Amino acid sequence: MTATADTPTSLSPAPISRLRVPELDELSTAGVRGFFTRQQREEGLTSNWFRALALNEGDLERLNGYLLPLLGADGRGGLSAREREVIATVVSGENRCAYCHTNHANKLGKVAGDWSFGQRVAIDHRQVAELTDRERALGDLAVLVNNHPQDLGDTHFDALRALGLDDHQILEAISIAAFIGATNRIGIALSIPPNPEYTGIPQ
């Protein structure tokens, strides 16, 4: 049957992954179950990306042990929450990962208090006037780490230091860019859709 303007389209949710996604009550690892419980309580959802990776619970638990602190979920010092999300948003935009692009653009908008800011950074950070010089430099670094890491040279590091970033923060920025690039590739390979909550203008 050919769809017409009068034919209703299906509103059933898209599959979360190209692979099997376990139900939450199937999960046997306490740390993973606790993660989803906290996410549901704090955000009112369970993210599709983490749900897809729950197929291998041990890998997800180990990944969370590195990824979540790297993005500042533990209240660590170093780069600010906004700087971390600028890096994550720029990389996800570069890689055109549907899930990560919308997720990090949404989070950056919340951190900045301006939903459109996150969306514009995701499209092209070079066109966003509100970025500080330091944020713009971190965005540029993120693009290089993601696309052309072999082009990084001492002049790039000197320029970052001149903006007040110390070596710990520079390493943190590189690690975020590189690791978000890896998460993008997982999301793209599994065709993980963004949660609907990440895609609309907040009311």
TrEMBL record:
Pfam families reported in the protein's UniProt record: CMD
InterPro entries membership: AhpD-like (IPR029032), CMD-like (IPR003779), Uncharacterised_peroxidase-rel (IPR010195)
UniProt entry keywords in alphabetical sequence: Oxidoreductase, Peroxidase
Start and end residues of each Carboxymuconolactone decarboxylase-like domain: 72-107, 130-186
Taxonomy, superkingdom: Bacteria
Signal sequence coordinates: none
A GO molecular-function annotation: peroxiredoxin activity
NCBIfam families, per the entry: peroxid_rel
PANTHER family to which the protein is assigned, alphabetical: CARBOXYMUCONOLACTONE DECARBOXYLASE-LIKE DOMAIN-CONTAINING PROTEIN, SI:CH211-175M2.5
Protein name: Peroxidase-related enzyme
Organism: Mycolicibacterium porcinum
Organism lineage: Bacteria, Bacillati, Actinomycetota, Actinomycetes, Mycobacteriales
